[in-house]
Specification:
Layout lengths: L3 H8 L3 H9 L6 H14 L17 E6 L5 H17 L2 E6 L4 H13 L5 E3 L7 H8 L4 E4 L9 E5 L1 H14 L4 E5 L6 H16 L6 E5 L6 H12 L9 E4 L2 H13 L9 E6 L2 H4 L6 E4 L2 H18 L7 E4 L2 E3 L8 H6 L1 H4 L2
Parallel strand pairs: 1-2, 1-3, 3-4, 4-5, 5-11, 6-7, 6-8, 8-9, 9-10
Antiparallel strand pairs: 10-12
Length: about 350
């Protein structure tokens, strides 16, 4: 059976370079990496997952690769993971990927280099082949806030479609007939799922089908919410939506701030609903109606799942956990102006 030195000789590189290709591929230029991978395939070299050397007596450590720590949602998930890890007596090494696929690749290599016992990840790029390589090597991986699809690993997420539908049904029952959705299709599949839930609510409630428009933004960030709010505010009042559903709370808070600065009354003129239920949502100038995700519970559950896989090894059965979202109604949503003006007394009951 070929070993790492055989591969190195065949490829004309050092054993260290072969190790880097296996453990830190982003450190090796593409041409050399392909040459080593070709030798690995030709010699049928199979790295042994159990050969990853942990120092005797070393405390068990987990890795957590977060898509964006600038987003408070991911910070709350990480806090939940850290709290659970402390209860179990394990450490957590957290890396920030900044919504950058290349940075994600480098940080995954870093976690492997640090010999963590398993990796939890909110992936920037769900199709990153590096994740599949880690799983193939026997490194436990848990997808957090994402479903792993066909990959043989654990995953957990909130039902984004159901959350979008909750938001849509709430707005429809308040009589809104012109709804804007703020969220970019390029950000994440979750944005599309939340939008699809809104559309499903519009077609399945039996109420009058509303006009739904989609305002694409390039990120989840507060500033993009303000930009979307400005686009709406610049329209004549009769051409504005009566409600805005944002793909997350950061966008919703940005829209809310822009409306307040432009003198648009929320919810009297336009209702706003977000998604996540960040701590900031209830403290906003107009407390934000939103769809709650169990943020810290996502992190806690991820730790439990990955420790279970580490302990059970080959006997472990992968889990795919879906949390149900919850509608949290606050002051930022109210009856549509038309419905309020036509039946004010009934709406006060």
């Amino acid at each position: 059976m070929a070993n790492i030195r055989d591969v190195a000789r065949h490829a004309g590189v050092s054993a260290g370079t072969v190790s880097n290709v296996l453990n830190r591929p982003s450190y090796v230029n593409a041409a050399t990496r392909e040459k080593v991978l070709s030798s690995i395939k030709e010699l049928e070299f199979v790295p042994v997952a159990n050969a990853r050397q942990y120092r005797p007596g070393r405390e068990r450590t987990l890795g957590f690769a977060l898509a964006d720590m600038g987003n408070p949602f991911f910070v709350d998930v990480a806090l939940g993971a850290e709290a659970a890890a402390k209860e179990f007596g394990v450490g957590v090494m957290i890396v920030h990927n900044g919504e950058d696929p290349s940075r994600e690749q480098q940080n995954l290599d870093l976690l492997v280099q640090q010999r963590v016992h398993g990796i939890m990840i909110t992936p920037v790029d769900e199709r990153n082949p590096r994740l599949e390589e880690l799983i193939d090597r026997g490194i436990p991986v848990v997808y957090v806030d994402r479903i792993s699809g066909d990959r043989p690993c654990c995953s957990l997420a909130t039902d984004d479609f159901a959350g979008g539908k909750l938001a849509g049904e709430h707005l429809l029952h308040l009589g809104h007939t012109r709804i804007a959705f703020v969220g970019g299709s390029e950000i994440s599949r979750q944005v599309d799922q939340r939008f699809d839930g809104l559309v499903d609510a519009a077609t399945s409630t039996g109420l009058s089908a509303p006009e739904i428009e989609r305002i694409d933004v390039p990120s989840w960030k507060f500033a993009e919410g303000r930009n979307a709010g400005r686009l709406i505010a610049e329209r004549p009042s009769e051409e504005r939506p009566t409600a805005v559903f944002c793909a997350n709370d950061m966008l919703a808070l940005g829209v809310l701030q822009e409306f307040v600065l432009d003198g648009i009354s929320v919810p009297d003129e336009i209702s706003i609903i977000g998604f996540d239920d960040l701590d900031w949502a209830s403290a906003a100038t107009v407390p934000l109606t939103t769809v709650r995700q169990p943020r810290e519970e996502l992190g806690r559950t991820a730790v439990r799942m990955i420790l279970d896989e580490i302990e059970q090894g080959a006997a472990h059965e992968h889990e795919h956990v879906i949390f149900e979202p919850e509608l949290i109604v606050r002051a930022s949503t109210g009856p549509s102006p038309k419905l309020r003006d036509s039946a004010p007394s009934a709406l006060l009951v």
